[in-house]
Amino acid sequence: MGMNDQRVEAVLQLLRKQAPLSLKQDKFCNPACVQRFLKAKGDNVKKAAKSLRACLSWRDSIGIYHLIADEFSAELADGVAYVAGHDEESRPVLIFRIKQDYQKFHSQKRFTRLVVFTLEVAIGTMSKNMDQMIILFDASFYRSASAFINLLLPMLKIVADFYPRRLHSAFVIDPPSLFTYLWKGVRPFVELSTVTMVISSLDFEDSLEFNDFAAYPRASSLRFDQSLMEPTAKIGSSASSRFSFTVSHHFDSLKPWYLSLTDTSASKVGPTSPSPLGPALISPLNARSLSFASPAARTPRVGINDGNYSSRLTRKSLFPSTPMPPKSAAMASGGGKKVNHPRTPRPSFLQSPAVFFRRECHVSRTEKNREAFRPVLKLYRRPYDEMIYRSKMRPPLGGLISIVTPNLRRKHVSLSQRF
Fold it and tell me: How many angstroms separate the CA atoms of 246 and 249, rounded?
């Protein structure tokens, strides 16, 4: 018998000395569960036994053995908390999309039971060699950072105290603007702060890897595909030197009007002769007033159209602008030679090594969070399906509501029609 087995037996003996274990409690306190409590308490037998006894009392107080899906019918219909699937390493991924006014209309006990119910469903879907999960907190429904902190901290405490070593990583997605400041203040006092990361979904807007919603009709209907629109005739247009306003012929179309940057008018901005840059030099520099632009932006570029008109545009500009500052005496006397000013020396590693380490750690932490969230991005964007989630529930968590697939339902109707 190894040291781990001896510690497990010592914890179980301490538990049985305090009070006899029921059949369900004895089934819960399996060797794997006791080892997780031992690892969380640093292999301290007395602390692990005390924490495990508190966990058993807490499970009896909330009635965890009587949780069924029928108690959370409204939450399951709206997709408030559910198991979205599994990642590449077979870890269940939980998503909590709780709105800000949920706790106003529900008690704290019901909220705790909902969280525990979702955790138990995720544990039931784990394979034999997997004992960890990933939790995604969608904070986009919250406008108050303090309200979301009051929701997040109790959930992390439940996982840390009563489900030790179960959480692999947690992601807070799109929190309110002041959440980062509050999180920095409370982070040293949160046990699971090391595995909790803050993510912005805007960083993955350009990611087309998990942006295919063709298999999900409800999600694809919310996106407008411009390529599917047939070209129609125009009934009128309004053009200027910078923009073009066009009205579609069909008034019931999804996009009856649109703006374009094509130059449709006779007045051109820039040269009208053919050039490599096109007939009209429309850019963010000349699409706005140049009165407040920098001197470099106001000066026309040299070399366009073989330099024939560059000197002419230099003398007379198209737009009235602030005059250029006069040349200094040093430049005038030097004949236009470039003056090399002394540069500030760059800090070396031996002088300030903390600057280099701080910069590298800051960049690597942000990139590390993004790379850790990328494998579960597909599950986060996948639309919620109540039937798929209910199919993951093992009895008695599934409740009395049975799921009948459409194929079985059609087969039953056809058999009933025969007789």
Answer: 10
Helix (H) or strand (E) segment spanning residue 53: helix 45-61
Tokens found for residue 193: 């702060």
The pTM of this model reads: 0.62
Q: Which residues pair with 85 in a beta bridge?
A: 93
10 touches 50 (CB < 8 A) = no
Find the largest Cα–Cα distance for the chain. 110
CA distance 323 to 295: 9
Closest CA to 393 of 29, 35, 19, 117: 117
* SS3 state of residue 167: strand
Element (H, E) at 92: strand 92-96
Q: How far apart are CA 147 and CA 82, in angstroms?
A: 21
Q: Which residues on neighbouring strands pair with residue 237, listed in sequence order?
A: 246
- Between CA 73 and CA 399 the distance in angstroms is 10
pLDDT of residue 115: 96
Answer whether residue 278 shows pLDDT above 70.
no
- Give, as one character, the DSSP assignment of residue 396: T
Answer with the residue of higher pLDDT: 356 or 194: 194
Please, which pLDDT band fits residue 356 given cuts at 50, 70 and 90? low
Name the H helices within 179-234: 179-186, 217-220
**Residue pair 139/151 in contact by the 8 Å Cβ criterion:** no
CATH code for the structural domain at 67-199+374-391: 3.40.525.10
d(CA 262, CA 244): 7
Burial (0-12, 13-18, 19+ Cβ within 10 Å), 240: exposed
Amino acid in position 56: L
8 A C-beta contact, residue 264 and residue 273: no
Distance (Å, whole) CA 164 – CA 147 = 25
Q: How far apart are CA 281 and CA 269, in angstroms?
A: 6
How high is the pLDDT of residue 293? Answer: 45
Contact criterion met (CB below 8 Å) for 118 and 98: no
**CA end-to-end distance (rounded Å), the chain:** 65
Spatial distance between the Cα atoms of 143 and 154, rounded to a whole number of angstroms: 19
